[in-house]
Design brief:
Blueprint: E1 3-8, H1 16-24, E2 29-32, E3 41-45, E4 48-52, E5 65-68, E6 73-75, H2 76-88, E7 98-101, E8 105-107, H3 109-122, H4 134-142, H5 155-176, H6 184-198, E9 202-203, H7 206-215, E10 220-223, H8 248-254, E11 263-269, E12 272-274, H9 287-295, E13 308-310, E14 312-313, H10 314-324, E15 328-332, E16 342-351, E17 354-356, H11 363-366, E18 370-377, H12 394-407, E19 411-415, E20 423-424
Parallel strand pairs: 1-10, 1-11, 2-5, 2-10, 5-7, 6-8, 7-9, 11-15, 14-16, 15-19
Antiparallel strand pairs: 3-4, 12-13, 16-17, 16-18, 19-20
Helix pairs in contact: 3-4
Length: about 425
Amino acid sequence: MSAVIVVGSQWGDEGKGKVIDFFSAQADFVVRYQGGANAGHTIVVDGKKTVLHLVPSGILHPKTKCIIANGVVLDVNSFAEEVRALKLTGYLKDSTQLMVSDAVSVILPYHRQLDQAREKALGADKIGTTGRGIGPAYEERAGRKAILFGDIFDDERLKEKLQSTLQEKNFLLEKFYGEKPIEIDEIIRNIKVLREELKPFRTADTSLVIHQALKAGKKVLFEGAQGTLLDLFHGTYPFVTSSSTIAGSACIGSGVGPCEIDKVIGITKAYATRVGEGPFPTELFNQTGDLLQHKGNEFGATTGRKRRCGWLDLVALRYAIRINGITHLAMMKLDVLSGMDEVGVCVAYELNGEVIREMPTSYALLSKVKPVIKMLSGWTDELEKITDIKDLPMNSRRYMDFINAETGLPIDMISVGPGREQTLWAKPLFS
Ligand code: GDP
């Protein structure tokens, strides 16, 4: 077994950073294949926190090579900043540890400008994007106007492509949004300052690197960003991100055939959160919701926004299992549920007086469903210091047994705190 995909099975922020950091010690390569600096993966090692937005979460293990593959949109300024911060804290000593595909689309300041102008113009109907230019960059890619990572090292090609794309962007910015136009020379100046810093990571074809690695029996971990329910095609459209976040996207974004994949791990929190707008059937608007928010420290790693909180939604989780082909679950933040008399789990929805067990994919219908909540007995003991699964309170084990029975999937990892060591029952990833 050598290729494993790790995806978020909810609305993102499930704790993918911790899971990928944890398993990276067992991997030869970690690959980011979609999304951009809108991801915010938090890793805590020996009490020290590192937040990664673009660089794969395997980077804290010096022997693990990290790849940013074609499907990612790379903000060159954020990327350079992240690389500097990693080097300052003693990581990434060898730049060959990190590879960026020449075919990655780059995000330049004008993508952010457009993103923010659009959200402003939408007013109350805003999507709640991170404003980091991700949407405009993917649109540009589909419109066949994207500036690729390889282009930024070629003066002539860069200028030509920028001229072509900026004509349209400036029209939009000035005439539609009433904003200032973009100066091409300023963008080129900015890129030239960064170029030397970025060059060591340049890789012509990362799909070939991955292919050769798999052929040689190396272990490759594909790191998903955001979450299943934010998927562009299968999420709660239009309140979704602008890339495909499901497991199939790992193949598309990194150029690997589907038959190469051996295992798909779905990460789920023991409860649910959502940041930004959009339907969220199990959202709690009461003290319990506030408690989850505070105890779980549910603030976005990228935007600092408060996350909305609610009970675990098994209808949504079963949907995620189906569309990703999830084979194993990782259960995060079980510790946050400690101290509650009862813990709720959504087992079905009620829609127009009828009980349904499948998630409606239309936004209009999903906004109308009412969760059918089953209350299970809670537990009082705090879990952060538990090191052996056998010491978990009986009711927390019953809670997981219930999820296991409802989903039919094994729970391969249980996390009871942000630290690497606060991990119980982690089975070897590549077995
Ligand atoms: P990601 O985007 O999926 O990587 O998720 P984030 O990093 O945005 O959010 C997860 C947050 O939960 C981070 O602050 C982690 O350090 C923290 N975290 C991860 N696992 C656990 C856990 O089991 N318990 C607690 N209390 N915090 C955790």
